[in-house]
Every structure is written in structure tokens, then in C-alpha cells.
Please model this.
Amino acid sequence: MDSMEIDDTVYLNRNLTMEGLVNQVDFQRRQRPSRCVTVCLGLLSAVLLAGNIGQFIYYEIIGRPASADPSQVGFHVQGDRLQGGHDASAAERTQLEAQLSNLTQEKVLLQQSYSALTAERDEFNASFNNLRNDRDQLQASNNALTQKSDQLQTSYTDMQSSLEGLQTNYQNLQREKDQLQSNYRNLQREKNELQTLSTTLRANRDQLQSNYSSLKINKDQLQASYNGLKQESDQLKMSYNNMKSSLEGLQANNKNLKAAKDQLQTNYQNQQRQKNLLQTNYQNLQREKDKLQTLSTTLRANRDQLQSNYSSLKIDKDQLQASYKTLSLSKSFLQIRYTSLTKDKDRLQSSSNSLQRDKEQLQNKYSRLAKVKDELELKINKVRGKPCQPGWRRFDVSCYFVSTEEKNWTMSRDQCIREGADLVSIDSRDEQAFVNGLLSADVNAWIGLTDSVKEGVWTWADGTPANTTFWQAGQPNSYDGEQDCGETVQRSPGPGQWNDDGCFAVQTFICER
Model:
């Protein structure tokens, strides 16, 4: 029986979803003709059995008593005719039983095909469910890792911002510290200079104090001398007053005393001038003392201020030192955290790369499954399709047509497309041998092979790469650089070979659908 008549009893429904390849195979079987034939054969057997019984009864009960009667000869002739009809019916029954046996065998074959397709469908469903579960798990893991990576990236960004802020604050504090250190050194130099000046002034003050003490002693001595002289003057006055009465007698002495008085007066004036000079020097020294006292007070205030500034600077230095230590610890901690985050980042990057590779592998597997699905769908659609049209030949699930007219490669393909097909694409040695068998001896025919898109890269007319090739030795050679289309050359024995030729050449072509 023709294989297409067997396949025509199978209907295949395939549902495709976005989640992947879902094969839902529902075999709907028509009411088989064998059932009707079986019923008919059963009825026919019953009728024949009834006829045989009736004929037996006729010959055994009715035919024997009247066998000597010449009038029953016609009945014998009619019985022979019925016997011949019975024999024909038996032969027809045998033929129908043979047909029933063939139909039974076909039924068994169809049942086995159905069981195999059911098992294959179950395997496809199980594989798809496993792939979908694996994909869901990988998707969940990828989402979790992506979320964790985003959180870590956010934390790292925050830590990086905090680190940059702390680094900026540390640099500002370092600059302030350097500025304060410079100010401290300047103040220290000024303090040392003021200390030296204070020491110098203290030495000058001590010297002046010593000079003042000496001058004071001299003054006291002069004062004592002056007092003594004053007492002597008073005594002289008393003597003068006492001796005034005896002035005349003492005139000579008076002159001497007057000269002595003048001398004493001169000395007194000199002493007075010296006293005034000492008084002036004393006032100058007093003013200098006041100035020195003021300067000493100022220096003491400056010293206190410097001491306070030094204490404040020392406190600031201690605080800066503590801040520096804290910042150093923070820097070390942040460095450790940064190193840890870098390691986590590298680990996450490695995981991401691994997941990316897994994703690409799954994508490749999905692409291969999708390709297999498309091929199976194409085959199933062809299986479900109508038988090949007259003039077309079937191989596997495709129909092939060899043209009777000759055209160039482009026009040949256009003609195939108008027929609902395309130039043949050959994927196996069996198909090549079949196509070779369609041609007459040494005939060349266009096939759907071309490298017009990229020189040296041969693809089929639908864009798929030509993975299985049957080139002649030394082919393709792209003679004169204008041979961009492929043809099959009939060879016997053998499956035939391919050759590249100019697409403008006119020859036979082969369509496939």
C-alpha cells in the first residue's frame, strides 16, 4: 500500500509557545475501513455458511428421493451452477481475507508508529519540562545574583563616595594640620625670639637695676653729705649769728669764712646741679622702669597668650594625631573592605561570566531545539500535506520536480517559488543520490546553492549554510570569478557531484517543497 495513504490517516497538532518547544501530539484516527470490511466479510461468511447448509439439506433430503426422476435433471444442472457460484464466493472470501490480513498488518504498523510517536512526544515533553525547570532555576539564580550584584554595587558606590569624602576631609585636615604646623613653627620661632629678647631685656633690666642701686647708693651718700653740709651750714649760720656780734673782730676771719662760704656755696650749687642731674636721671630711669614694667607685663601677657596658644596647638595636635590614627584605621578598614569588595566583585564577575556561558549554551541548545522543532514541524506539515502532485517525485517528506525547460539560476528559482517550492537543498548523501537518480545521464541541473552573498561562503537559497557538500575534485574554483551558483552533475554509478557555474547559464533545474 502507498505510504502516503497510511500517513494520511494521522493528524498531528503541534502547539508552539514562547516558553520553548512544546510538542502536543494528538493522533486522531479516522474510522478505519478495515472495520467495515471485517463486518462485511462476517456477514458474507454467514450468508455463505447459510447457503452451504441449505444446499446440503437440499441434496441430502430432497435431491436423493427424486434422483431417479428424469424431471429432476434440470435441478442438478442448477445445483452445479450454484456450486460454481459457491466456489467463486469462496475464492472471493479468500481474497477478502487476504485483504483483511494486509489491513491488520497495516493496523499493527500504524499502532507501532503511533506508540513510537507517543513515546517520542513524551520524551520531548519530559525534556522540555526539564529544560524549562533548568531555565527557571537559572533565571531565578540569575535574578538573585543580579539583585545581589546591584546591592553590592550600590554598597560599593556608597562606600566609594564615603571613602572619597573621608579622603577629601583627610586631605583638608592634613592641609590644615600642615598650616597649623607651619603657624606653630612660626610662633615657636617668634616665641624663641621673644624669649631671647626677654632674656636680653631682663639682663638690661638687671644691669639698669644694678646701676640704679649704685646711683641710689651714691644719692644716699650725697644726701648724707648734703645733710651733713646742711648741718654744718646751720652750725655756721649759728656761728655766724653768734659771731656776728663780734664781726669786727672777726672781720679777717669773716673774709676767710666768706671765701669758705662762697666755696661752700659753689660746692652746694655743684651738688645741687648734681642732685638735679641725679633727679633727672632718676626720673628717666623711672620712666624706663615703667616702660620696662609695661613691656614686661606685655611680654608676660604675650607669654601667657603663647602658652595658651601652645597648649591649644598641642591639644589640636593631639586631636589631629588621634584623628589621623582614626583615619588611618578607617583607611585600613576601608582598604580591607575594598579588597573584600574587589574579591566579591571578581567572584561575582566570574559567576556572571559562568552564567553568561551557561546562558549562551542554553541559548545554543534552544536554537538547536528550535531548529529541530522547525525541521520536525516542516516534516510533520509535509506528512500532513497532500500527496505530491503529478510530475513530482517524493523522497522522505519532500516532493521534487525536474523541469522540462531550461532557465538561468535566478529565473529557475523564481519558477520554483511560483510553484510553492524553492530550488532543492541537499542535506544528506541519500538525498543527493535520489536527486542524481532524477536526472538523465550526464545532465547538469541547477540546485539552490550560491555564494553570491560572500565569495567562497556557499549557502542554500533560503540562507542556511551548506554543511554537507559533494563537490567534484578541484571544485568550486570560481573560474574567471563569475561562477557564483551551484549545479549537480549526474553521475552513474555514484550519487552525483556538484560544480560551480555562472548564474547566467541556461539549463535544467530541480525544485523541492
The chain has a mean pLDDT of 80.
